[in-house]
Predict the structure.
Amino acid sequence: MNHWRTSHERVLAQRQAEGWMFLIEAVRDMRTTGAIAPSSKALARTLTAPLRSQPSRPLSVLEAGAGTGAITRALIPLLTRGSRLDIVEANPRFAARLNHLVATHPHLSDRTGQATVHESYVEELDTGHRYDLIISGLPLTNFPPHQVERIMSRYMELLHPGGTLAYFAYLGTRKARALASSRTALRRHAAVDAIMTDYQRAYATGRWTVLANLPPAHVWHLQRPLVDVVDRPSHEADEARR
């Protein structure tokens, strides 16, 4: 028996099954599923780059909106002994798949409790921990602006000073939305874009373009300052004055 071919075919079958699952869940609920296909290896590598650049010490990592686990599978082998991974997924069918992934992944076989799946919204998450790295796969453009603000504020609260938030946004969606969306939806998208632009201006340390993904995406890294500064994104200042 050709073991390489058997393994390769198994991986292809898994990717095909995940692709169909994404399409089904996107039709079912765009609140918890904002993609039409699982994230690619290239996208996963860019999102997890801050973890690979860290020295070999225990780190706390949070993955939000993990879907079927494409990024999770890239994350788990990077966890050093003593590190912690919390995985947040609001979609119950995705959460069940992630629980199976954690329970059966060989890297975690002798590390009970190193990775935990939380079936929850990230803005409601309360693990009592802060994180060195947060990776977000949430479809923020699908949410109302006030919810995006709550999510981004919660991310910053959950980061250690100096910690990094890595998230992605698909390329070309703005033009597609302009053609297909109502005026109300366009105003909502513009408000979300403004919130994200404020956070990028205040905290961004880099942006990368990943073409080898469906669809292609920009990856942003935002860093919480080592010392909290007075100058916050303008939308936060507006909220504070109200």
